[in-house]
Design brief:
By secondary structure, this protein is mostly beta strands. It contains no helices and 11 strands.
C-alpha cells in the first residue's frame, strides 16, 4: 500500500493550497481517509476525515470553515482544500487510510508565511 501526498508548498497568510493523496495497493473506495498534521515541536493532530463513500466528513475545530476534505474514488485520490491559511497551519501534512489509521503517506510540507 502506498499513499502519495502532494501539493504542499510555501504560501502567504490568507492564501490557499490543495493537497492531494493518491493511493495504490488497496481498494480505495472501502477506506476512510484522513489528513493529519504535525507542526514543529508539536504532536500530530487530526485535521479532517472523510468516510469511504464520501458522505460523512469531520473537521478539527481549528480548521473548520477554512478546510474542505473530499475524495474521488474513481481516481483513488483524496483532497484537502485549504483556504484562508494562517501561519499556525504550518506543518507537515499526512494522509492516512483506514480507521486506526492502517496506512500513512509520507507527508507534504505546508509553510504559511505571515
Amino acid at each position: 500500500v502506498q499513499l502519495q501526498a502532494s501539493g504542499g508548498g510555501l504560501v502567504q497568510a490568507g492564501g490557499s493550497l490543495r493537497l492531494s493523496c493518491t493511493a495504490s495497493g488497496l481498494i480505495f473506495s472501502m477506506y476512510r481517509m484522513a489528513w493529519f498534521r504535525q507542526a514543529p515541536g508539536k504532536e500530530r493532530e487530526s485535521v479532517a476525515s472523510i468516510s469511504a463513500s464520501g458522505v460523512r466528513t469531520s473537521y478539527a475545530d481549528s480548521v473548520k470553515g477554512r478546510v474542505t476534505i473530499s475524495r474521488d474514488n474513481a481516481k483513488n485520490t483524496a483532497y484537502l482544500q485549504m483556504n484562508s491559511l494562517k501561519p499556525d497551519d504550518t506543518a507537515v501534512y499526512y494522509c492516512a487510510a483506514g480507521t486506526s489509521p492502517a496506512y500513512w503517506g509520507q507527508g507534504t510540507l505546508v509553510t504559511v508565511s505571515s
